[in-house]
Design a protein that fits this description.
eight-stranded mixed β-sheet; four-stranded antiparallel β-sheet; globular; about 10% strand; 19 helices
């Protein structure tokens, strides 16, 4: 057997031997580092089950393999190019030291990260790029480093040990340099699939992403699977700004706290400008109502009859509005689905010109590691069963990340739902009428009280319909096709409520209908972000119309007030049901930001310059001035970005 292995090994080119032996060595060290990370931070994982912990360790191997091959793979790829050119001046042996040098840098970062995680609650990422900036204090940094002299000794010992092993590997492997280019070419085609798989992180599907670490459904287990080299590497292309300088930080925090304050507000953290609750309601009421939220794709006020449209696209919604409470000045925070859902479910906006790769969304990259208290967590802590549904793949538009960060107990995408022939729309996922039936099935099977949030799909380009029943538009008429799909979803919205009224849970349920964002074809800025918000709960909520300005950022406190729950939250918006709260809405444009306050609407570029001030109702230029609203917007930007970068929305445990 020994001779057989020796003979087989003799056929392997030296560069391939170095690659596989080096890969095994590096993967072993990374596993030991993860074990050390676990031991130092074991308090964070004390509630996890052993088998799930093992699963997270195994999931972490993908991230380790990714970063090792991403950094060292190009050098090994060069060595695998056939030919005797590698023998000149001992090029191969000397060049082979570069992967080890890169790995030692990674080793140092991993050791630093073990201590950083203890303080920050997340892995190193963009922070590493801030060393050397204007605020860099060399003396203070050296003092801090000296506190971890034990870790420095570990690094020194480990580095020396790895250098000795690497030297031995190179000596053994490069003793007989391969000169057979055919054999080298064969092993090149062995090397390439290994390299591709390792960097991609899987055989099929999208390349490895941060959210893939959180497949166990618990944040701390995702942290166990991740490593800092991956999160740092992501920020080479996903690079958030340094701490923002929109407005003096102390003044900004004070201004935002005043914005979110009202007579009934109880502040839960002295230094937090957002973490609060409504003190007029009990935290755990005796009677708990169910809450079902329907988020409709691209529904805009300008297309809905209840808001004055004469297009006739929403007869069923209009009937519901006659018996519900309709808000006329409710605004989407942005014009992307993920922005709207994040605001509704977590209460935090995206910030353009903040993270260029993710377009400002915190549901991507390193900011996914932060601590958040979403609507699922808030209601779940009060005994609710919580479920998030959508008819597409769980990874589309980062829905799985959203559901996890919002704290939903169940996340049902197309992979978890039983699909029958003809139920999928092709471009995106399940038809809206199919998903409305699924929503009824799920809510009927959930123990009360329950929270269910559903995101629709069909009213989205390419505007496909299940049949010709609602088709009126000519081919190529995109506006007409949009109207057809809106009319289709509206029809089945009416059917949904007809069926819901027959369920036992209906009399104890509050239904809320809103949207993720407006249709993008709307031209006027003052209408482009106005979306519907209808509370429908016959016998519970009296019909009416609310003219208060509000936004998706105030959705969570609005729902808590509506249901009479005095729970803590960090939403960056005010409750629509708090009559004494300040009225405002923050808008995230592609080209800047917007702010709505009472009847004033203004736009601002990324550098803080005001580009337009309008009357909210007429759209005419506003002549009354900004009345301090520019300072409020700058303060809002300062606080939101700073708290995201510092992971301060939820206090460290």
């Amino acid at each position: 057997m020994k001779n057989l292995l020796k003979t087989a090994a003799a056929g392997v080119p030296p560069q391939t031997k170095v690659f596989f032996l080096g890969l095994f060595l590096m993967m072993s060290v990374m596993t030991l580092l993860r074990l050390g990370f676990f031991v130092v931070n074991k308090a964070s994982f004390s509630l996890s089950y052993p088998l799930i912990l093992v699963s997270s360790f195994l999931n972490g191997l993908r991230f380790d393999l990714h970063v090792i091959l991403f950094a060292t793979g190009p050098f090994f790829l060069l060595l695998h190019i056939p030919g005797g050119w590698k023998n000149f001046f001992h090029f191969s042996r000397r060049f082979s030291w570069i992967p080890l040098f890169l790995f030692l840098i990674g080793l140092a970062l991993c050791l630093v990260n073990i201590h950083y995680y203890t303080e920050a609650g997340r892995h190193l990422s963009y922070e590493i790029f801030q060393v050397g900036g204007e605020a860099y204090d060399l003396k203070a940094s050296l003092k801090m480093i000296w506190q971890y002299k034990g870790t420095i000794l570990v690094f020194a010992f480990a580095s020396g040990f790895l250098v000795l092993i690497w030297k031995t590997i190179l000596k053994k492997c490069w003793e007989n340099t391969s000169k057979g280019w055919v054999r080298e070419l064969v092993w090149l085609f062995v090397f390439l699939p290994v390299m591709t798989f390792g960097v991609k992180g899987n055989i099929r599907g999208k390349p490895l992403r941060t959210s893939d670490a959180f497949s166990q459904g618990r944040t701390e287990l995702g942290h166990l699977a991740l490593n800092p080299l991956f999160t740092i590497g992501r920020n080479l292309v996903e690079f958030p700004d340094d701490l923002p300088e929109h407005y003096p930080e102390k003044e900004a925090f004070k201004t935002v706290r005043e914005l979110l304050d009202s007579p009934d507000t109880v502040w839960l953290e002295e230094n937090s400008p957002v973490l609060r609750k409504n003190g007029s309601f009990p935290e755990n009421p005796e009677k708990l109502l169910n809450l079902v939220v329907l988020v409709l794709e691209s529904w805009s006020n300008v297309n809905i009859g209840a808001y004055g449209s004469s297009k006739g696209l929403s007869p069923e919604f209009d009937k519901l509005a006659d018996n519900g409470f309709l808000f006329e000045n409710f605004f989407a925070v942005g014009n992307r689905t993920i922005e709207g859902l994040a605001a509704i479910c977590i209460g935090i906006p995206s910030f353009n010109h903040f993270n260029h790769m993710t377009k400002g969304s915190f549901l991507s990259g390193s900011l996914e590691q932060n601590r958040y208290k979403g609507i699922g967590s808030i209601f779940g802590e009060r005994g609710y069963s919580t479920v998030f549904l959508h008819g597409e793949s769980s990874k589309t538009f980062r829905q799985s990340s959203l559901a996890r960060l919002a704290g939903f107990q169940k996340h049902l995408g197309i992979e978890e739902l039983k699909i029958k022939p003809g139920e999928t729309s092709g471009p995106w996922g399940l038809w809206d009428h199919v998903m409305m039936d699924r929503l009824l099935e799920v809510t009927e099977s959930e123990p009360e009280p329950f929270l269910a949030v559903w995101m629709s799909l069909s009213n989205h380009p390419p505007y496909v319909l299940p049949d010709d029943t609602f088709k009126t538009a000519r081919p190529g008429d995109e506006d007409g096709q949009f109207g057809d799909t809106l009319r289709y979803t509206d029809h089945f919205l009416g059917r949904f409520f007809e069926k819901a009224k027959e369920r036992d849970f209906f009399k104890n349920t509050v239904f809320v209908i809103t949207a993720d964002h407006c249709a993008r074809s709307i031209s006027t800025m003052e209408s482009r972000y106005r979306i519907p918000l209808l509370v429908y709960a016959p016998g519970i909520v009296a019909p009416g119309v609310g003219k208060e300005v509000g936004s998706q950022l105030g959705f969570i406190p609005s729902m808590l007030d509506l249901l009479g729950i005095g729970a803590g939250h960090h939403a960056m918006g005010n409750s629509l049901f708090d009559r004494q709260a300040q009225r405002f809405a923050f808008l995230n444009f592609a080209q800047g930001y917007g702010w709505v306050s009472d009847n004033l609407f203004f736009e601002m570029d990324p550098d803080g310059g005001v580009t337009g001030v309008f009357d909210l109702d007429s759209g005419e230029s506003f002549v009354g001035g900004l009345s301090g609203n520019r300072e409020k917007l700058l303060s809002f930007l300062q606080v939101g970005k700073t708290m995201l970068l510092r992971n301060q929305f939820v206090p460290a445990p």
